[in-house]
Amino acid sequence: MQISRYSAPEFDPYGDARPTGTDEGWQAPTAAGPLSSVLAIPGSKSLTNRELVLAALGDGPSTLRAPLWSRDSELMIEGLRGLGTRFERMPGTGGFGDDLRVIPADELLGSTTIDCGLAGTVMRFLPAVAALALGPTTFDGDEAAYRRPMGATIDALRVLGVDLDDDGRGALPFTVHGTGRVQGGPLEIDASASSQFVSGLLLAAPCFENGLDLRHTGERLPSLPHIEMTIAALRARGIEVGNPSPGRWTVEHAPIRAVDVHIEPDLSNAAPFLVAALVAGGRVTITGWPSETTQVGSRLVELLPRFGADVERAGDRLTVRAPDSSAEGGRGIRGVDLDLSDAGELVPNLVALAALADTPSTLTGIGHIRHHETDRIAALAAEVNGLGGRITELDDGLAIEPVPLRGGPWRTYADHRMATSGAIIGLAVPGVVIDDVGSTSKTLPQFTQLWEQMLA
Questions:
Q1: pTM > 0.90
Q2: Terminal Cα distance for the chain, rounded
Q3: What does CATH list as the number for 8-41+265-455?
Q4: What pLDDT digit, counting tens, does each position of 27-63 carry?
């Protein structure tokens, strides 16, 4: 096994593009004692952006109740607005902002530019929608987005007969020359780098003239629950999605039914708060936890007990209690050996937890998170090691040896989950200063307020 070790000064996933943030940064608060907190979390980004696409392609107006209002969802709204979709904000029912009525365009029109920011769902879901529009649509985004893989989407659309100009980059920026129709039919792609390649095609597939018969050709398919989320959203709108064999999905040409849908709380965004109970002691309760869900964050119910937590469900409330501290003076947090291939978005917060555990951990199956907002494997190793930690990169994971950490700067690389991971470590390590806590606006603009509420 090839192993490389990084320290903070040697690694910069941004190259010449530096992370944004104030000169002062945000000093992560240290817990003064055990927690006793009850919190509500805003809506799921993954569900919101899927439902926005399906509503825009629907056969009539749809209403999204308690959607997430964040940078990623607002970029999706603006992208769809540029293609002709209309939106009406309505008084909210979820406590975190307005509801949203989505009115599909009579005819999708291109001749626009879509700003993807750093949102994988925007850059991978909307190109197939733009192919159904008349006229060219240019996709651009943050400089860091230029390094996110897009080849599977670009190649797939070309196979389906879509004219697309990317100057051979296989990445942003590129232009989709839509003709108002996509033939569809059989298609093979390698989605090893992201399940979003599959989801983006499935969401638009009912509008393809021959539907879609999609096969994944790679050896591994990460984050399969996100594809299951896409399938569930399609089925709720009357679209039958077949799954005749692993890695193959079929969708017939059919109208996408307009529906009113309530967006669940974002369970992955609940992760730092639930993890905080183990680090600081005490308990944290999240309200609105769904009884059934396709969200990856639901795996916290089974993962956190592996670290020693006590997890209790009572109606729509999920409570995590800290383990008893060990006689040797540790936190009572156990190290783990986990394959997290289907839960990559939980990895950064779980790495922060493992770095504060009493015994070593190994997290594997996560090579694909090198292609998320930043190279999360290298970034996590760099930042924890920059505080005196001992994390070693593996071929597809991280080996974490807990040692006492010291305060210091924590870089986020414009990655919201790097920011929340730094905050977790700051609960136990005074003096952790996060350079860009504002990066949490990508999926949870209220992060710092909720964090302070939890600690109050």
A1: yes
A2: 46
A3: 3.65.10.10
A4: 999 999 999 999 999 999 999 999 999 999 999 999 9
